[in-house]
Design goal:
Elements: H1 8-14, H2 36-49, H3 58-61, H4 65-77, H5 80-94, E1 102-112, E2 120-121, E3 129-137, E4 143-150, H6 159-164, E5 182-185, H7 192-200, E6 204-207, H8 219-232, E7 240-241, H9 246-268
Helix pairs in contact: 2-4, 5-9
Organism: Streptomyces goshikiensis
Protein name: IS5 family transposase
InterPro entries: IS402-like_dom, Transposase_11
Length: 269
């Protein structure tokens, strides 16, 4: 296994979250189980390169692509990726590298090559099947939560579910933070109904108005969410949705968000 696929600081954070391996049978135990670190290397290899699971080289990562996919399935169903993301967000807050006062939201379309859950005709891609990534970030572009919907869902319909998906972020004394004070968004979120709902949650909406000339100045803060989408789509497996199961694609999204948080944690320390 290549050592650079799973750095030590990543493995130290992932290993305590993994479910215990099933006990081997005493009689006819079968082949030895592939180590979890090798399976994680296979998942990261697919996430970064975008290759098909069947094309994963066992000599490179230490396990077959089928084994890596099965471990991704098991760990996604066990809820490993949300807990990893929440733990890294807490570390960032403890290191004073998280600014939750100003946050930004946006959505990004990706083509879906296979049918499945959360796939719909995309209005920006000639009604071809696609999905949408919905993202909320802090002032520095650190991803706080990500959701997945069909390509035909309007961005504003996922505004409240996206806020609900932000985990309680600990790391400091007192109550954990789970919502911003101010929320920036583009014209796609310009609906008075949702402005009122944000005010009721104690969040000040700073949303560009439709029909108004550009130059509101909101882009000085909101551009970070576009940059984070660029970071996410550097992981080639996320540029196009190949997974038929929505939970597996969403698990890869959360894993990519965790890797971005870990990268920011390294630079801050």
């Amino acid at each position: 296994m290549r050592a650079d696929l799973v750095p030590d600081d990543l493995w130290e954070r992932v290993a305590p979250l993994l479910p215990p391996a099933p006990e081997r049978r005493r009689r006819y135990p079968g082949r030895l189980r592939v180590p979890d670190r090798a399976a994680l290397a296979g998942i990261l290899y697919v996430l970064r390169t975008g290759v098909a699971w069947r094309d994963v080289s066992a000599e490179t990562v230490g396990c077959s692509g089928v084994t890596a996919w099965r471990r991704l399935r098991d760990w996604t169903e066990a809820g490993v990726w949300p807990r990893l993301h929440a733990a890294l967000l807490a570390e960032l807050r403890r290191a004073d590298s998280l600014d939750l006062d100003d946050c930004a939201v946006d959505g990004s379309h990706v083509r879906a090559l296979k049918r499945g859950d959360h796939v719909g005709p995309s209005p920006v891609d000639r009604a071809r099947p696609g999905s949408k990534h919905h993202l909320i970030v802090d002032r520095h572009g650190t991803p706080l939560a990500v959701t997945l919907t069909g390509g035909n869902r309007h961005d504003v319909t996922q505004l409240l579910p996206l806020l609900d998906a932000v985990p309680p972020i600990r790391g400091l004394r007192g109550r954990p933070r789970h919502k911003p004070r101010r929320l920036y968004a583009d014209r796609g979120y310009d609906f008075d109904k949702y402005r009122c709902l944000l005010w009721k949650r104690g969040i000040k909406p700073l949303i560009a108005r439709r029909g108004v000339a550009h130059g509101s100045g909101l882009g000085k803060v909101r551009w970070v969410v576009e940059r984070t989408f660029a970071w996410l789509h550097q992981f080639k497996r996320l540029r196009t949705r190949y997974e038929r199961r929505a939970d597996l694609h969403h698990g890869l999204l959360e894993l990519a968000c965790s890797l971005i948080c870990l990268r920011r944690l390294r630079t801050s320390s």
